[in-house]
């Protein structure tokens, strides 16, 4: 009988131990489990304990819970509550003392507590791979935006577009860089255009006041601003030259009408040519005038006689006109033939 009693005691003891160590992290059929090493290290529990009022069928083997703070996924009514709890605790794949990571989804230590519903935004879960990827993407976007804008503005100001796209960095970085570059480029371009306009006006004003260009120091170092200043200066010089050309052409015309060639001294070739053009235009008008007078005189006199003109040049033009009158010459020949006929038949 003693042997039988001893065997029964051993069987009872082994059954109790099996129930005690039946679950290392999740609750067993009685609603309890052994405290994990992580939880013990944090002082959250000690040994076997129950959740939600669970108990064994045999009250003699019940071991009371020493810490009721350890939670399971079934303790939450919504998944947002799970995430809020997880985030408040600062849990992660490597820091999960309550073994919430992997519950129900078959993936342990992936940084996702319990089992999220389909389509749940996992970027809300602290330290999840989705959140880390989201943060990295946002960081890349901000970096690309800042760098793209700065480079674009510099390129727009300098007048080149060599750095519109980059091959390095993530896709998020490159996309943000490209968009920001265009914005910065337009702003840089607008800025240099405004400064070029100011430089051009300054050059124009200087060109109106002097014939010798002297570029300010502030424009020498920037080729675009220097070119704008020079263009403004040249524009003013050109306008002054056009005015001078017009004046000298008028003077040449006036001198030509008086048959006096007297251009100003030390004229540039361009200005001297303007004077000559005016003079020659007047001379042609005078030539046409005296030529026509000689032509008309031939109608009233068949015999040429010198006009009362002091200028030999004008007299020459007058005579050329007189001689060129073919109508008078024809009448003269007909008159001569008539005289010879009368003499012949008389």
Report on the structure:
- The protein has helices at 2-20, 37-42, 79-89, 129-158, 171-209, 217-220, 223-257, 269-300, 312-323, 326-345; strands spanning 32-34, 48-50.
- It folds into three domains: 19-120, no CATH class; 134-240, no CATH class; 268-345, no CATH class.
- With 346 residues, the protein is mostly helical.
- Residues 15-25 and 52-67 have low confidence and may be disordered.
- It has a two-stranded antiparallel ribbon with strand order 1-2.
- It is rod-shaped.
- Helix 5 (171-209) runs parallel beside helix 7 and helix 8 packs across helix 9 (312-323).
- 60% of the residues lie in helices and 2% in strands.
Mean pLDDT score, rounded? Answer: 81
**Beta-strand fraction estimate:** under 5%
Counting copies of identical and different chains, the oligomeric state is single chain
| Element-by-element helix/strand order | HEHEHHHHHHHH
The total strand number stands at: 2
Distance between the termini: 202 Å
Residue ranges: pLDDT <50 for 5 or more in a row?
15-25, 52-67
Largest sheet: 2 strands, antiparallel
What structural class do the secondary elements suggest? mainly alpha
Q: What proportion of the residues is helical, as a percent range? A: 55-70%
The number of helical elements comes to 10
Number of separate domains: 3
């Amino acid at each position: 009988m003693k042997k039988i009693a001893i065997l029964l005691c051993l069987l009872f003891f082994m059954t109790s131990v099996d129930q005690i160590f039946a679950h290392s992290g999740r609750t067993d059929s009685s609603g309890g489990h052994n405290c994990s090493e992580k939880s013990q290290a944090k002082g959250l529990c000690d040994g076997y304990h129950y959740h939600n009022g669970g108990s064994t069928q045999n009250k003699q083997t019940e071991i009371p819970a020493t810490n009721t703070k350890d939670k399971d996924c079934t303790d939450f009514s919504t998944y947002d509550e799970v995430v809020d709890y997880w985030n408040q605790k600062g849990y992660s794949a490597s820091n999960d003392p309550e073994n919430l990571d992997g519950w129900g989804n078959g993936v342990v230590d992936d940084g996702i507590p319990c089992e999220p519903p389909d389509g749940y935004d996992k970027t809300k879960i602290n330290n999840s791979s989705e959140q880390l990827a989201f943060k990295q993407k946002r960081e890349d976007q901000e970096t690309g935006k800042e760098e793209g804008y700065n480079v674009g503005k510099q390129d727009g100001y300098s007048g080149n577009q060599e750095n519109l796209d980059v091959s390095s960095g993530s896709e998020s970085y490159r996309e943000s860089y490209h968009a920001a570059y265009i914005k910065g480029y337009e702003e840089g371009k607008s800025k240099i255009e405004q400064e070029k306009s100011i430089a051009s006006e300054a050059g124009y004003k200087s060109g109106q006041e002097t014939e010798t260009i002297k570029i300010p120091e502030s424009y020498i170092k920037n080729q675009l601003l220097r070119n704008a200043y020079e263009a403004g200066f040249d524009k003013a010089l050109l306008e002054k030259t056009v005015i001078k050309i017009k004046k000298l052409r008028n003077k040449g015309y006036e001198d030509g009408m008086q048959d006096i060639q007297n251009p100003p001294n030390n004229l540039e070739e361009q200005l001297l040519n303007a004077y000559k053009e005016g003079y020659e235009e007047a001379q042609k008008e005078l030539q046409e005038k005296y030529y026509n007078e000689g032509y008309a005189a031939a109608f009233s006199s068949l015999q040429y006689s010198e006009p009362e003109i002091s200028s030999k040049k004008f007299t020459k033009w007058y005579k050329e006109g007189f001689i060129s009158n073919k109508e008078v010459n024809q009448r003269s020949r007909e008159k001569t033939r008539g005289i010879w006929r009368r003499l012949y038949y008389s």
